[in-house]
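Is alpha-D-ribofuranose placement plausible here? Inputs below.
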Amino acid sequence: MSELKKRPVILDGDPGHDDAIAWVLASTVDEFDIKAITTVAGNQTLEKVTYNARRIAALLKLDIEVAKGRNRPIAGDLIIAPNFHGETGLDGPKLPEPDHKLSDLSAIEMMAKVLKESKEKVTIITTGAQTNVAALLLAHPELKEKIEMISTMGGGLRNGNWTTGAEFNILVDPEAAYTVYHSGLPLQMCGLDVTERALVYPEDWERIRALNNPVAKIVAEWLDFFFIHVSSLGWKGATLHDPCAVMSLIHPEIFEIKDYYVDIELKGEYTRGATVADYHGRLNKKPNCRCVVDLDREKFVEYLYEACGKFADWEVNL
Ligand code: RIB
Ligand code: CA
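Reply from A.M.:
I modeled the complex. Tokens:
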């Protein structure tokens, strides 16, 4: 039987409940060779999201050192989201303590090392602000050719969620997003257009909880917490943003994807951080982004459920 072709992957995010679930999903993908986890400030401060990332890596038994990234955006002050993710950034279930030391390398140095050493081109999956990736591209333009693509959760072609026009990850660092969207790299964007349809309902995660393995129970408890604030906004299900950036790579067939030229608004008094698609071709520019705009929700949930089922007999030291 032919050997499965492994796909080198870097996970960059700000865990964050939905980042955490995205990384649980990613850890179950046989084709993924997770080369590095890097952190960026966003949902919480850099210190907190990095501690969370190291605990998630321990939970998933990933034999890698987490590398700390940027603690603030390129311009402006840091925005954090304790209303969604709590004071720790990952409030809810108890997690194992880190079982690997923090890397001595910065996120950018780690990303550059992985790109230099990888024989294959590397896929970068971002689920927070794009500060680290932008810094990597600015510091190491020669390594762009080693990047297969960037699958990113961020933006929204029709609406924002932190301001009317801007989604949180882009608004945290619009200049970084501008650098990435102008990099010429293959981009696949899971904006709010799809992630606000990636709804997991309480009955869905009760099924996950009923799998009764340590990771599935933690995922269910993460959703218990995440849904507290999300439901207060009127949502009937948890908007599972970040897992879309993983799921759309491994099951593209359940998503609707459209190619647009997308740019980042930097100056608008009310629209800074908006991801603006040239729907009508007025800018006469080639599309720079594969925009994921819809999904088969039931299949999304089923694949997430299957992924959580892969942790039977998983030992977790709490
Ligand atoms: O707008 C949703 C995004 O912001 C998600 O990545 C969530 O984790 C927060 O970072
Ligand atoms: Ca995130």
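Short version: The chain has one domain: 7-310.
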